[in-house]
Design brief:
CATH topology of the largest domain: Arc Repressor Mutant, subunit A
Number of helices: 3
Radius of gyration: 19 Å
Structural class: alpha+beta
Mean pLDDT: 76
Low-confidence stretches: 144-179
CATH class of the largest domain: Mainly Alpha
Largest sheet: 5 strands, mixed
Number of domains: 2
CATH architecture of the largest domain: Orthogonal Bundle
Order of helices and strands: HEHEEHEEEEE
Length: 186
């Protein structure tokens, strides 16, 4: 029996890069060079940058300095920009943080501990995890086989197990990142 190979893709390299850029924008909301550290198949940043600039000129996305503390160009979907504005408004109005806790698998693409936040990196290995409180990494480690399952307000993503963990606090707490957004349209 002869093995069949899939037909070659008819997409041009530019179309492939644009599809990947759209995927990253949907995944992260705001796209900066640093978030692509966890993406093994990411094209070179210069290729993504050309594509993102074209998308900005067409009015599909916004570019600029959206989040302080990061060097280089940043791009966001309109929905991501609105989320950042809502967060800024809540912070400026003195609303308390909600205290949401999320536990991510170390293999999850949203595990950006040590990449865009200060502290130790949590390697993308099965069994590793990172715990976020209000989006800030507070602990990371691996689950021990004897750990019992207990909710404790922790929500799992993509099948990451719940429960007490052998997590140690990360080396440095993440600072409050100041958001520098363009003014809201009136």
């Amino acid at each position: 029996m002869q093995a069949r190979c899939p037909p070659p893709s008819s997409a041009t390299p530019e179309e492939t890069v644009e599809a990947m850029a759209r995927q990253y924008l949907r995944r992260y909301g705001v796209l900066i060079r640093e978030v692509l550290a966890r993406e093994p198949q990411a094209p070179p940043w210069r290729e993504l940058l050309r594509c993102l600039r074209r998308m900005e000129m067409r009015g599909e996305i916004r570019g600029g300095r959206l989040v302080a503390g990061f060097v280089g160009e940043q791009f966001a979907l309109p929905e991501g920009l609105e989320s950042l504005r809502a967060l800024r408004r809540a912070t400026e109005n003195g609303q308390p943080r909600r205290g949401d806790v999320v536990r991510l698998s170390g293999c999850d693409p949203l595990n950006l501990a040590g990449i865009i936040s200060p502290g130790d990196r949590v390697t993308a290995t099965l069994g590793n995890h990172v715990v976020l409180r209000d989006g800030v990494p507070v602990a990371g480690g691996s689950k021990s086989p004897g750990d019992e399952e207990a909710g404790g307000g922790v929500k799992a993503r993509r099948g990451a197990g719940l429960g007490r963990t052998s997590a140690a606090p990360l080396a440095r707490p993440a600072p409050n990142v100041q958001r520098t957004l363009p003014p809201e349209p009136r």
